Each structure stands twice: as structure tokens, then as C-alpha cells.
Hints:
This protein has 16 helices and 31 strands. It has 719 residues and is α/β, with parallel strands linked by helices. The strands form eight sheets. An eight-stranded parallel barrel has the order 12-13-16-17-20-21-22-23. Strands 24-25-26-31-28-29 form a six-stranded antiparallel β-sheet, covered by helices on one side. Strands 4-3-7-11-10 form a five-stranded antiparallel β-sheet, with no helix packed on it. A hairpin with a 4-residue loop joins β3 and β4. It is elongated, with a radius of gyration of 28 Å.
Amino acid sequence: MRVWPGRPYPLGATWDGAGVNFAVFSEQATEIDLCLFDGPGLVETRVPLRERTDQVWHCYLPDALPGQLYGFRAAGPFEPEKGLRFNPHKLLFDPYAKAVGRGLTWHDALFGYTIGRDDTTLDARDSSAFAPLAAVVDGAFTWDSDRRPNHPWHETLIYELHVKGFTQRMPGVPDRMRGTYAGIASEAALDHLRQLNVTAVELLPVHYRVDDRHLMEKGLTNYWGYNTLGFFAPDPRFSTDPGDPGAAVREFKSMVRSLHAAGIEVILDVVYNHTAEGNQMGPTLSFRGLDNASYYFLSPESPRYYMDFTGCGNSPNMQHPRVLQLIMDSLRYWVEEMRVDGFRFDLAPTLARELAEVDKLGSFFDIIHQDPVLSRVKLIAEPWDIGPGGYMVGNFPVGWTEWNGEYRDAARSFWAGRDVPTKTLAHRLTGSGDLYERTGRRPYASINFVTCHDGFTLRDLVSYEHKHNWANGEDNRDGGNDNHNWNCGHEGPTDDTKVLARRARQRRNMFATLMLSQGVPMVLAGDELGHTQQGNNNTYCQDNELTWLDWEAADREFLRFARAVAQIWRDQPVLKRRTFFQGRAIRGAGVADVSWFRPSGHELTDAEWEEPHKCVGMRLAGDCIREVDERGEPIRGDTLLVIMNASSKTVRFVLPATNPEHVWELLFDTADDCAPAVTLAGGERYELKDHTLAVLRTRPQAPPTAEVAALLRAARRVV
């Protein structure tokens, strides 16, 4: 075998059309072998890496080809008390692997220490028969005329989905494509997204992940995928041909190309806050064996142990430049090579931890902010972790948007009938200026959501008050306990028509509230279908009918409603403002673009502003937007009135005055999907039933017909 010196960059395995360059970082290893696997029995051939440049070990194999399976072995001190866990008996997955050649098979040999003893005892069994293998890939792909949609944030509607769960049971998707990247690219899937006016899909993790051993032993899996091992490799479980290492790469790119052609962006949920290796009792699969002390944030007092800000066992060492490089290289790879349009960072505060405390201006954010590639894509933070000071809603830098947990809690609590101060509700409905305006951000910094993958579905949110997570095998201890919700009078399934009608209204109320709020709406896949997870609010380990969307059982009436409300969101510019209302307080003297009303028709007083109200109205002035379009023309639209009644009584709401030549026209009422488009004058009363939301708009009063006009003239002559 010919072995040439090669180059230290790029890291990983790089096919250049003539051969393959291999490069891997380790600061403290004493020896590293490249291990090649070939033939039916995957015979191992070891190639010692003789060249070392700037702590990168490298070689070039002129005879290697795409499809070559490989891994690494690293020798060095095994001194866990000092944070050093080298073990040359363990085959290691390349941190920069672009494809997975073989998945992991759980076995005690995967652990660097002897199972049954403590983690300071070296295990000398060879793990190569069970360890995951990386594969060399040829990244060539025909993108044709692919163009990024580049939707501005204020015109973005996000649809959060799981690649498998979305299409596993979708009619119209060929059987072999169900549950795959190719399934999302199918015409049936694209048509559904288009009809909802979706502009971006947010995919639950698609980086190569490992199923936790304790889940496998229970017959469960890490379905959501928050257990990453390969930050460059698309997960082969979503490929139509998992046996072909290159198929996942090609099919992911094809999916992106098809979504872009449909005008839909691709956002990845990424997990850089921990890896699949867990704490000191976890397996040695990659980073731990290559250079544990460099890759992981170890306890300063006792480096045998890991700092854990996620509850998953470890956290990356964001102080080390090679760890920062790994994350940045991964992000740029997905943007430049795979052409994704943005990222949602799981437990993002962990990435800002440099000295255990959260630093919002940490190295990671500084690097992102100045990066010419990454600073231009959509960046979303999940703004909390479990470490000290980890709840960071409203504290991320300019250029970042955030999952707004404050919005979720306020919207849920209001419709559950709980007391929510009116000013709190108002801030959430108008882009949460109290959270984002002071840092120079805009309303679209707020990613608004009522439900997401983590928690109840929308149907379950109004059907259960308590979690029912027994299927997870943790005695119902997992999952959140305070869900700010109401079961509408009965726990779980029921035949009570009154309860069912109330639940249907509540679902419409919350979906409509989401679409009528300033900020970026995010819809959980399946909510528009009435998907249920039977009260399980933590389905991270359920890869079955509980999480796969049941398209045959879809609530067609609610789907029609969801599509109609999404169309209103798309058509009404007053719902997609780029700036906060007047750039200052959202109520008070002289505020014309947003106003708040009591059922009596009077604006709220200062005292009432501080109090909770079960029934309130919000008027959005479409002629006072004070923004211009891309050609500099003033943006104008309809004036909307949103009236919300979360009480248990019918309210006769006095409609605010309009311009003399205008009337209020009903767009929809959640108490009746088929309510006719009635018109009313300002000062008239609108009957708003209990637990109901209605939306009206102003429009010019229609001129009377010729017959009616003649009668009016005659009447005036008589007078």
C-alpha cells in the first residue's frame, strides 16, 4: 500500500479525485493509526500516521477510493484522574466523517474501562467488531439551478418536523421513500407544506446519532436524535438505502434541492452541547479516545469527571480552539456543501460557557457574528440549559432569534383560563419587545410557538392536564409536569360532545393566536392534523405509531381551518411587521398602530393594563404600519381586530369605531368554522362565545344597490 505524507487540512477524509487525504486532531496522543476495513469480513489494515503538523496527524493514500471504510486508534496515557483516557484497543469514529459506513452494535468492548468495575480500570478488548465505521464519500452532486429561497425573517413560517415521523404513514409517498429524506422531497409532502404556506422546515436532528444502550435494552430508541456522534454525516436511518454510505448524502442534497424549488428553506436542529459518549461511565467511541481533555469540559477540581450543563453527561470544551473549529467547520459544511439555510441550536447557552458561567458574548457567538458564511443564515437559539444562569430568554446577541418560551407559557395559560397580566399577554402578542427591543433586535427575534416536539401536541394540550409517559419505561417520572394547560373538563379520550366541542375551539384558539402574533410562527408537524401522542409529553424514545403522523385519521375540518388562517397570515402585512409598534411602548396616548380594548369598547386604562382580563381585544392598524417594501413603497393592509374570550361565559363585545366609510367584516370565529362573513358597524356588539377568538377586518362599506339607493333618495325627499 502506498502511503504519502498528505496534508493537515482539511480534517477528516477528503477524496480529491485521485486519492484520499486523512487528517485527525489529537494534542496528547503518542501514536495514531488509520484503520482501513475491506472485504466481506471487513479485514482491518492499520496505517501508522507518521506525519504530525500542528497537532494534526495525517497521510495521503493515492489508492484509496470513495466507499472506503475506516476508523482510528489512538495510543497515549490512560490516566482518568488526569482526564486522559487513551486506549488503543478501541476503534474510534472520525469526528469529521462525512458518511457512516456501519452503525454501532452495543457491546461491553466499546467501553474504555472494564464494565462492572470503576472507570479507572483499562479494558483491553478490541472494539472494532462493534464500533461504528466512517466512510469516504465523493461529494459531487448536480445542483442544477438550485437557489436559496432567502425568505426574510418577518415573512417566515416554520414547520418543525421529524424526518421519519412526517412521511412514514403519508398517503401518496412511495413505500420505499416513507420516513426518509426522499419522502420529504415527494410531491405529496411538498404539496402539504405549500398548502400551509410553510416557508421553512425545521428538521429534528439529522446528524449521525447513537441509540442509548439503556433504551435499546428496553426495546426503545433515541427517536428524536439528540445524541450526536457525527457532526458532518447525515443520519443513514433516513436513507432509502442505509447500506450505501453515500446514499444518505445524495438523498439529503436532493431533498434540499426539491424544498428550495418549492420555495421552502431547510433549518437543522443541531446538538453541539454534548456528544453520545456521555459521562465517565460512557463508551469510548470517538472524541474521548482521541483526546478527552481537549474535547470535553472537565471538572477543574477532578478531571476524571465531566462538567455537565445539559443532563446528558458531558459538555464540549468551548475554550479549546480545535473544539470551536470542529463546530464551525461542521456548520459551514452544512451550509456550503449541503446547502441548508439555517440552524436551531439545542440548549444554546451551553455553547457560551467558557468558565462554567454563561457569557452571552463568548467566543462562539463572536465567531458566528463575524463569519462571512454563518452570519448570513438563519440562527435560532433554544435559550436555556440546566446549568447555573442557563435561562437566557431575551439575552442572545443581535443576529440571533430565540425560541420564546415566555410566549408559549403566556398563550397556553391565557387560554387555559389562568390569570395572565394583560401587559404580559400584550407583549407576547406583539413580538415581545420587552425581551428583544432593548438589545437592538426586531419582533422576528421571537420564534413563537405553542407546541414543539418536546411536550404535548396541540390536541393533547387540550385533552390532558397530566403527562402519561408510561410507555417510556421511567415510571412516568420523565417529561415536564407544569404544562400551563387545561383538559377542557375531562382527562383523555371522551365521548362527551360538549367537551369535544370545547377542545376543538381551544385548538383553533391557540393555532389562530400563534398566526396572529408578531414574530415568527412555528407550527409542530401534525398539529394541523389533530395528531395525538395519547398524553405522552416526552416521546423522545418512541419510534412507532405514537409519533408517526396518522394521515388517515386527520381532522380534515381543523386542517382546512389551519390552512385558512395561515393564508390570512400570508396575506395581511400588519401581521408581519419588521419593526415594533412605533418603536416604543405598545399602548398609551398617541399610539395609533396598536390599541387594546375592554368588552365595553373602551381602551384599557393604566390600572387595567396591569390586571389580568379573560376577554380583551387587540386592534392592529393596517394603515399605520410605517414600513416600506423592497422598492421603497409604503406598506398598507387591512386593519384587524382580534377579540379573545378565555372565560366560561358569552361576552357581547362592543366593536371599536371605524372610519365613517368603513365597517367591520368577520374573517373567522373559532366557535363556528363556517360562520358567514357578516359586517357590523363600529359601536355594534359582537357576540363572542366562551373560549372563543374572532377576527374582523375593516373594509369600505359596500354602496347600496340601485333599488335601495332609490328608496333612500325617496326617503330623503319625504323628510
